Amino acid sequence: EKNGTWHVALGTQYNGQGATLVYGSTDFKRWTFKNVLYSSNKWSDSWECPDLLFISHNDNDEETAILKASAAPGLDIWMVGSYRHSTVQFTPLGDAVPSSFGQFYASKSFFDSDKNRHIQWGWVSEEDQAGPSRGWQGVQSLPVVVGVDSTFIVPTAVPIPELSLL
Questions:
Q1: How many Cβ atoms are within 10 Å of 40's Cβ, its own excluded?
Q2: Which of 87, 95, 41 is nearest to 67 (CA)?
């Protein structure tokens, strides 16, 4: 929520490209299209599970953010950029890159306000796609803390410190 308006990001195919669209509402009943936040056909022609993580957490109109999308089966991508609230625009600072290596997909995150951090989980599946014959397919990943490196250009993900208590 910013200035009385709630926003939702939707992953889709838009003009033949994978895209994140943003809609806004002041009452959760009527939603208005705001903008195509970002689109590309580099990784896939359809996106799902988008996430927009605000890194700077300030009251300014412009904030540093990470835009994440699930772009292809087994592949989440992300990029760091600048998000402008007044125009609902995201300007990437570099190209989208895979958020992890291997079979990591459909990740979602939440903001842990007690510790001022973004926590992310994702789906990890096997590469063989033999799940039906096994009776199961994949597992939920361990949680990671998402942030940016010291250049504020490269997204980072490290296991949450609480895992050391297990």
A1: 19
A2: 95
How far is the CA of 88 from the CAs of 24, 37, 135, in angstroms? 10, 7, 44
- What the block records as the tokens of 66 is 């990470």
| pLDDT of amino acid 1 | 75
Burial class (CB in 10 A: 0-12, 13-18, 19+), 54: middle
Look up the pTM and report it: 0.89
The Cα-based distances of 152 to 20, 63, 82, 119 in angstroms read 22, 12, 10, 18
Identify whether the C-beta of residue 50 lies closer than 8 Å to the C-beta of residue 12.
no
What's the one-letter identity of residue 148? V
C-alpha distance from residue 97 to each of 58, 70, 87, 92, 126 (Å): 26, 11, 25, 12, 21
For 53-70, write each residue's pLDDT tens digit: 999 777 789 999 999 999
Question: 11: Cβ–Cβ under 8 A, 6 or more apart, which residues?
Answer: 18, 19, 20, 46, 47, 48, 49, 50, 69, 70
